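dumping this here so i dont lose it
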């Protein structure tokens, strides 16, 4: 005896359609879950301030070459009877060539920090990040940079390995579809960010600052020597002394800038640590406080940068 109800046959096309709909809904729910709990606002703030800090480092690179050239020219001015400014500058640029080479490498290192911040910002804004292929060869170049006045590498092999790992990850993250997972993976490269920013900090304090001191020392010597010529050529001596005094004050401003840059880097590193710790906590008090401190220090850095250069 058969039942009064008959089960309608399931069409294959209908099954496929149902599966597609269910998968699509699951994808939407998964995406909402992944991004909804993440503190994306804090990620954006951290990324934006890091890009500003990175931009503030670049003028120091150009300034280091300038300090080297000016130091040599001032020394020539003091020791040469027949001083030729054009010839002295040409010779100085040749002698300062190694500094230019190091600057290019440190600029690439700084670009890696900028790339990291750009990628974080893009993921937090749910846009497709981009990758600069020229950063791929950073391992070989970074190993060549030495600490000022020594043959010691600025970045040792162990630290370099973490930086290379970050570079490799940045080249792959553009293919990731999981917003939250990609951001957390980036934040987990904390060691690399510490090593990169420590390298920038060391270059500013050890290399750049030493060139500033050398330039200032030559200016002080030259200003003292002008006192001997003030009686016979007061107008020329006073004019040159005024120019040198202005340059000396600018060097002092740039020296103070190094301290602010170091403080900003310390705030960056603490902000990264807090962001990683509180990534899934909206409006975590310690994170909010740290990001405000970081933002204020970067603002101070940019203000001093505009005054020093």
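and the seq i came up w/
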């Amino acid at each position: 005896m058969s039942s009064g109800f008959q089960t309608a046959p399931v069409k294959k096309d209908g099954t496929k359609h149902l599966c597609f709909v269910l998968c699509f809904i699951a994808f939407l729910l998964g995406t909402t879950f992944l991004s909804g709990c993440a503190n994306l606002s804090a990620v954006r703030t951290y990324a934006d301030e890091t890009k500003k800090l990175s931009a503030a480092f670049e003028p120091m690179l150009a300034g280091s070459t300038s300090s080297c050239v000016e130091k040599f020219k001032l020394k020539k001015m003091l020791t040469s009877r027949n001083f030729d400014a054009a010839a002295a500058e040409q010779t100085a640029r040749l002698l300062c060539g190694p500094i230019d080479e190091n600057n290019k490498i440190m600029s690439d290192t700084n670009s890696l920090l900028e790339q990291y911040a750009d990628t974080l910002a893009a993921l937090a804004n749910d846009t497709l990040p981009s990758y600069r292929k020229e950063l791929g060869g950073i391992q070989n170049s970074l190993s060549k940079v030495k600490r000022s006045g020594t043959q010691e590498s600025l970045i040792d092999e162990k630290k370099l390995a973490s930086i290379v790992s970050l570079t490799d990850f940045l080249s792959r993250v553009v293919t990731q579809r999981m917003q939250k997972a990609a951001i957390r993976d980036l934040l987990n490269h904390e060691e690399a960010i510490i090593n990169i920013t420590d390298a920038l900090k060391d270059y500013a304090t050890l290399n750049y600052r030493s060139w500033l001191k050398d330039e200032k020392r030559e200016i002080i010597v030259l200003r003292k020597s002008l006192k001997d010529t003030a009686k016979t050529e007061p107008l020329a001596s006073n004019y040159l002394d005024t120019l040198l005094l202005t340059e000396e004050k600018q060097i002092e401003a740039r020296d103070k800038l190094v301290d602010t840059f170091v403080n900003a880097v310390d705030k960056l590193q603490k902000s990264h640590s807090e962001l990683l710790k509180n990534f899934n906590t909206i409006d975590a008090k310690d994170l909010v406080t740290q990001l405000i401190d970081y933002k204020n220090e970067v603002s101070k850095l940019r203000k001093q940068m505009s005054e020093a250069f």
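Residues 251 and 292 are 29 Å apart (CA to CA).
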